[in-house]
Amino acid sequence: MKQVRSHIAMLLLTGSVIGVTSFQAVAADDPYVKEAKDYVASASAPVTDWAGPTEGPKSQGKKMIIYVSADQRNGGAQGVSDGAKEAAAALGWEFRTLDGQGTVPGATSALTQAVALKPDGIVLGSIDAAAQAPAIEAAAAQGIKIVGWHAGAAPGKIDGAPSIFVNLGTNPEDVARAAGLYAVADSDGKAGVILFTDSIYAISTSKTNATKAAIEKCTGCKVLSVEDTPLADLSNRMGQLTTSLLSKYGDQWTYSIAINDLYYDFATPSLQSAGIDPASGYPRSIASGDGSPSAFQRIREKQYQVATVGEPLNLLGWQAADELNRSFAGQQPSGYVVSPHLSVNSNVDKDGGDQNKFDPNNGYRDHYKSIWGVK
Hints:
- There is one protein chain.
- The chain is of the alpha/beta class.
- It has 2 domains: 7-43 and 173-308, 3-Layer(aba) Sandwich (Rossmann fold); 64-170 and 312-338, Rossmann fold.
- 43% of the residues lie in helices and 14% in strands.
- The protein has 13 helices and 11 strands.
- It has helices spanning 7-18, 23-29, 31-43, 75-91, 104-116, 133-141, 172-186, 202-216, 234-249, 262-273, 293-301, 313-328, 364-372, and strands at 64-69, 94-99, 121-125, 145-149, 164-168, 192-197, 222-228, 255-258, 284-287, 305-308, 343-344.
- The strands form 2 sheets. Strands 7-6-8-9-10-11 form a 6-stranded mixed beta sheet. The protein has a 5-stranded parallel beta sheet with strand order 2-1-3-4-5, with helices on both faces.
- Helix 3 crosses helix 7 and helix 9 packs across helix 10.
- The termini are far apart.
- Mean pLDDT is 91; it is low at 1-26.
C-alpha cells in the first residue's frame, strides 16, 4: 500500500467514470461541487445564536430520572448522559445511569431494571424503540414519562411508539448529507467512498442511505461499498475489515464515512500498518455522528480523520431534561431540532472543541435555566 496517494492515481480513478482528460474541467464547473463547498463553509461556522425554545413550564419539582444507555462506550450515549445529569442537578432531580453494554439483551435488562426502580422519567440513550417496545410499554403502563435520544430514525414523534414523548437529535438525513457533502467538497468531486453502518439501528440505516444519495449525486464520485459492521463488535472486526478493504480497493478508496466515530478507533491501527500517511494519505475518515473525544483528537492532530458531524451531546442532555419537564407538566414537546455542525481541522478548537466535544457557545444552559426558573 502506498504511503501517499498520487495525483496520477486520482486521475486514473476518475477516468473510468468521466474520462481523464475532461476531469478537471468537469470538477471545476460542477454546480454540485460548488454547492457542497458552500454548505461546508456554512456548516463549519461558529455556533453563537440560540435557536431553541425560550418559553416552557417551570420546574415541576423533585423527580427521579434514569438514563438507560444502549452502550456507554459509545461517546454519543455517554455525552448525552453527562448533559442530562448536569441538567438534572440544576433542576434538583435525582439521576442514575444504567448501561445496556452494547447488546439487545443488555438493553432489555437495563430497561427492566429501570422500570423496577419506579422513576418519574426515563431517557433512552440510543435504545431502539422498535427493538425494546415491550419494555418501553411496561414503563409507560406505570406512568413513567419517556424521552428518547436516537430511539428512532428521526427527531420528533416515533411512528409505532406512542409512549415515547419525543425523540431527540439532529435530523439524521441532514447529518448524513453533511458528511457526504464534505467528501464531495474535500475531494473536488472525485471521492471514492466506503460507507460503514450498523443496520440493527433504524437511525443508522437512515443515515447511510442519505449519505449514499449525497455521494451518488456527484458526477465524479462513487460509493465503492456499504459495510454493515455492528458497533458492539468493532474491536474484533474493524481492524481486519480495514486491511481487507485496502487490499480490495487500493487507491480507489479515498474516503470512509461511518455512522459513528467509534469505527475509526479500531480502523486507525490498520491504516498505520499499511503505511498510509496520517495527514495527507487516503482514505480520509469522516463520521456522520456523535463527535467523540478521540475523533476531535484525530482531527486536531491530522491522524486520518478529517471531519465529524458531531451532535451537541451535552446540549441534547439538557434538552432531554427540558422535554421531560414539559411532559411532567402536561405540555407538548418543544419542537426544537438542533442543526448539523461540521467539526474539521480549521475549527476543531472552537465551540467546545478545545475540550474534545462539540458544545456550542450559544448559552443553552442559561436559556434552559431561565425557562425552568432555576439558578
